[in-house]
Design goal:
With 578 residues, the chain is α/β, with parallel strands linked by helices. The chain is 37% helix and 20% strand. It is built from 20 helices and 23 strands.
Length: 578
């Protein structure tokens, strides 16, 4: 078992765990990942997206930190809810053991009981297969959230120090991530010096120091950091701004991180089959080919109409999925976020400037995406923009709430139910075309939604469906879900008679999974969250179809999807689980 620890000493959110993991995969190694979040919440399901970013949903229904999405997108792996450890989870585990009598007669303490539980958790997760090979991973990337020195991080830091000692030399490598600010043109190293000092005092001696900076670090700065932090110059890795985040692995490889990983983990001693080595090399070549953009790409203007647009991370997976698809379509993504409240009629009186700027962005868009969300705020703006996309033949993609909004809009303007709404907005409305799911709980909020991977079945007669074509013409597809509300079955027949095709249903043929308009360039909405399965080298089919339609190359992408499904394109199908 080998562990690579990535921790921050100045600020969180600048971790390079995914890039380090990708570099290790290019050697042919199997890599898994674990994120440690020191907050007391047992999961991220009830966290405010405007404070913590999106809640990322795993295949098993785990509601986790958004960093797990980065791991899955970069590494092409499938993690479990065990891959996100929190203070709440660990303390609950130990308290449950104490109540069962596992510690009978002993005083239960942070050391050794909490720290032992943390180490056991890491060792257990490190052995769980995360790819199609079904084999145990060779290396586990552990990212410690927050910053070293935080009071709440103490037990985790102590457990990691003990784990390093237990695993021994060549089995544990620590990467300290820091920030080098530029003030009046000068690169300041004091924050990094103090951060590393804090790490060392806690027992986490860094084997490499990744210094985040807006520009390439001066050689004098590298030498100063190395000298003050008791490391060699080559152990200081400069991480400057790149054109895209997907080029960071290329930068880290150029800066020598892979050499440090090889030496620090004695990877030359790991015996790998020629097939695995070749697979790693092919991954690296494909990555470089994909993420290095061609010059003078045509732009594609996309508007994201949401409720939480003040924080980019609130829709991180949606943004990344759009980027993946734009790269595949050879387009430069120009993504503009619009607050759905600014599109509502009363905003024209409250703040005409915001109202007109929001609608100007919509009018200039080549495609409109309406993502998920909760609550009634901004819903009317979403309905208005959905009507705009439908009537003016602008490519449209609705996700979760976005699909529910599309159904409400259609019921209002095509069925004539002017008050059509969702039970989430009004529990007593006459025409609730969206209702609370019968199996849901209105008393317990955490973990009670319809979560995780679910199967959807395309209905007979939907061979014309653009969404189905993007999945390669299959009859069944799987995507991850996170919702409490669904389309009211009582309105299904009316909706279809009015021209809204319900293209896919759940296993029981009752729950609506996708809707589509036949005579529209691309009007697709799904109950699922396909953004959670999009990969850098394997874009999500709904997103790829949407961007392709917005870019004018949908037929080309549909043909590629057909060939991929039939296995006629060498190497393409392999990118799903690279």
């Amino acid at each position: 078992m080998r562990v690579v620890l990535v921790s921050g000493g100045v600020i969180s959110g600048v971790g390079k765990a995914s890039s380090a993991g990708l570099l290790l995969k290019t050697l042919g190694l199997r890599v898994t990942a674990l994120k440690i979040d020191p907050y007391i919440n047992t999961d991220a399901g009830l966290l405010n997206p405007l404070e913590h970013g999106e809640c990322y949903v795993l295949a098993d229904g785990g509601e986790t930190d958004l960093d797990l999405g980065n791991y899955e997108r970069y590494l092409g792996i499938q993690l479990s809810r065990e891959s996100n450890m929190t203070t709440g989870k660990i303390y609950k585990l130990v308290i449950d053991r104490e109540r069962r009598g596992d510690y009978l007669g002993k005083t239960v303490q942070v050391v050794p009981h909490i720290t032992d539980a943390i180490q056991e958790w890491i060792e257990r997760v490190a052995k769980i297969p995360v790819d199609d090979s079904g084999e145990e991973p060779d290396i586990c990337i552990v990212e410690l959230g927050g910053t070293v020195g935080d009071l709440e991080s103490g037990p985790f830091v102590e457990a990691l120090v003990q784990l390093r000692h237990r695993l021994g030399r060549n089995n544990f490598l620590s990467i300290g991530v820091s920030y080098v600010p530029i003030i009046n043109g000068e690169e300041k190293t004091k924050p990094t010096q103090h951060a590393v000092k804090q790490m060392r005092s806690a027992g986490l001696i860094p084997d490499a120091i990744a210094c985040r900076c807006e520009r390439e670090l001066d050689e004098a700065t590298i030498q100063k950091v190395a000298r003050s932090c008791q490391v060699e110059d080559e152990q200081v890795i400069g991480v400057r701004n790149m054109d895209t985040i997907y080029q960071v692995p290329l930068l880290l490889e150029e800066e020598g991180l892979l050499k440090l990983l090889k030496r620090g983990l004695a990877l030359d001693q790991v015996e790998l089959s020629p097939a695995r080595v070749q697979k790693g090399q092919a991954l690296w070549e494909l990555w470089k080919k994909t993420v290095i953009p061609e010059k003078h790409l045509d732009p594609v203007n996309i508007v994201l109409v949401g409720k939480y647009i003040s924080l980019d991370d609130a829709y991180l997976s949606v943004r990344k999925s759009l980027e993946h698809s734009a790269m595949r379509c050879k387009r430069k993504l120009n993504l503009i976020s619009v607050d759905s409240e600014f599109l509502e009629h009363d905003m024209q009186q409250k703040d005409p400037t915001k109202y007109h700027n929001a609608w100007k962005a919509v009018c200039e868009a080549q495609g409109i995406v309406v993502p998920g969300g909760f609550g009634s705020r901004g819903i009317e703006g979403m309905i208005d923009v959905t009507k705009w996309a439908r009537e003016r033949n602008v490519p449209f993609l609705g996700l979760c709430l976005g699909m529910q909004v599309a159904v409400m809009e259609y019921a209002r303007n095509k069925l004539g139910y002017k008050n059509a709404t969702s039970e989430e907005i009004s529990a007593t409305a006459e025409n609730r075309v969206i209702i609370f799911m019968p199996e849901g709980s209105k008393e317990q909020m955490g973990g009670t939604m319809r979560l995780g991977t679910r199967t959807s079945h395309f209905k007979p007669g939907t061979e014309w469906s653009k969404l189905r074509a993007m999945y390669g013409g299959v009859e069944v597809f799987e995507e991850r879900h996170r919702h409490r509300y669904e389309v009211n079955p009582k309105y299904i027949e009316e909706l279809e008679k009015a021209g809204l095709t319900l293209t896919a249903m759940d296993d029981h043929g009752v729950r609506v999974e996708s809707i589509e308009l036949k005579d529209h360039p691309f009007f697709v909405a799904v109950q699922a969250h396909p953004e959670f399965t999009s990969k850098v080298l394997d874009p999500s089919p709904p997103f790829l179809g949407f961007i392709a339609a917005s870019s004018g190359c949908l037929d080309k992408m549909i043909e590629a999807a057909r060939l991929k499904n039939e296995g006629l394109v060498n190497g393409t199908s392999a990118t799903t689980h690279f």
